[in-house]
Design a protein that fits this description.
198 residues; 46% helix
C-alpha cells in the first residue's frame, strides 16, 4: 500500500484491511462476535463488479446493546483503526463507524446477509435498494455514478419507481420534506413522464 494520507482503497485493499481489523479484535480477546453492516463506497466495491475506488470504509455496528462485561465497543474500534492507519500509512479516518441517525430507516436498519467473517468480526451486506435509498437521501455529487448504477441494477427507470423505494424506507412525508426528497428526485427525473436515461 502506498504510504500517504490520501490512499485510495480498492476492493482488495478493503478485504485485506478488514482481515487485519478482525484479527486485531480477536487478539484483544474481545468476548463477543462483532456484527457490522457495510455501506457506502466499501459496499459498492465489494458487492458489485464496478471499477471504483474509495477513500474510507463505512461500517455500522448492528449490535446496539452490549453485556456489562464487554469492554466499550466504540473505543476498541477507534484504537484498532488508528493502529492499522499507522501501520499501513492510511489516513486516520479510513474506517468510519456511522451513527444510527445516518442509517436508520422506518422498521429498523436492515441486517442484510452475511458477506464475510474476519476473525471475530462478521460483515453483513444490506440489500442494494437500501444503499440506493441512502445515496438518494443525501444525493451528493460524488454519489451520482453509484446512484445511476443502482438504478440500472434494480431496474428503476421512472420517478414513480424511485418514489416507491423512498416510501418503503421513509414513509413519513415530514421526513421526506426534511430531506427535500422531491427536489432530489426531480434532478434525476425532470418530469414524471421522462424515464431515466442511464
Amino acid at each position: 500500500m502506498r504510504e500517504n494520507d490520501e490512499k485510495e482503497l480498492t476492493r482488495h485493499d478493503i478485504e485485506q484491511l478488514l482481515q487485519v481489523f478482525g484479527q486485531k479484535f480477536a487478539q484483544r480477546r474481545y468476548p463477543v462476535t462483532v456484527h457490522m453492516l457495510l455501506i457506502g463506497g466499501g459496499y459498492m466495491l465489494t458487492q458489485h463488479d464496478i471499477q471504483r475506488i474509495t477513500r474510507d470504509v463505512d461500517l455500522y455496528p448492528l449490535d446496539r446493546t452490549w453485556p456489562d462485561t464487554v469492554p466499550p465497543f466504540p473505543g476498541h474500534v477507534y484504537e484498532i483503526a488508528q493502529e492499522i492507519a499507522r501501520e499501513q500509512g492510511l489516513r486516520h479516518t479510513w474506517l468510519q463507524t456511522l451513527p444510527e441517525r445516518h442509517v436508520k430507516v422506518t422498521g429498523g436498519v436492515p441486517r442484510g446477509s452475511l458477506w464475510r467473517t474476519f476473525g471475530i468480526v462478521e460483515i453483513y451486506a444490506p440489500p442494494a435498494d437500501y444503499i440506493l435509498f441512502l445515496k438518494l437521501r443525501i444525493n451528493r455529487p460524488k454519489d451520482r455514478a453509484d446512484i445511476s448504477y443502482l438504478f440500472d441494477c434494480l431496474g428503476i427507470q421512472t420517478r414513480e419507481q424511485a418514489q416507491a423505494l423512498i416510501d418503503h424506507y421513509m414513509p413519513d412525508q415530514a421526513n421526506q420534506a426534511y430531506f427535500d426528497i422531491s427536489t432530489k428526485l426531480h434532478r434525476w427525473f425532470p418530469s414524471s413522464e421522462t424515464n431515466l436515461d442511464c
